[in-house]
Amino acid sequence: MKAIFIVYNQALTEKVEYMFDRLEIRGFTQWNSVFGRGSVSGDPHMGTHTWPELNSAALTMVDDNLVDVVLGKVQKLNSINEEVGIRAFVWEITQMV
């Protein structure tokens, strides 16, 4: 089992939720109004007058066989409009209750 943490410009919220629906990923937690700045490029998303854009984030736990599928979808979303921005990070889940 893996955890996938996805951070994305709020403009992509519907597309991320649609991706979860299409892949039949039922369980996820979503945060709105996430502030930050990418480590390589891109403008800060701080919700301020100077940097008005905001990010959202979602965390989902999936079986190992879905990881590459989700990452492929995230990569495709990013390639459509790299200026908007979306990133995904994967962690191993060793236990859960």
**Total number of helical segments?**
2
Give the CATH level 1 class: Alpha Beta
Q: Cα distance, first to last residue?
A: 13 Å
The outline comes out as globular
What structural class should be given to the helix and strand makeup?
alpha+beta
Report the portion of residues in β strands: 25-35%
What string, H for helix and E for strand, traces the elements in order? EHEEHE
User: In angstroms, what is the radius of gyration?
Assistant: 14 Å
The largest sheet, given as strand count, sense and whether it forms a barrel, is: 4 strands, antiparallel
In the CATH scheme, what's the topology name? Alpha-Beta Plaits
Count the beta strands.
4
Average pLDDT confidence is: 94
Please give a structural write-up.
With 97 residues, the protein is an alpha+beta fold. It contains two helices and four strands. Strands 2-3-1-4 form a four-stranded antiparallel sheet, covered by helices on one side.
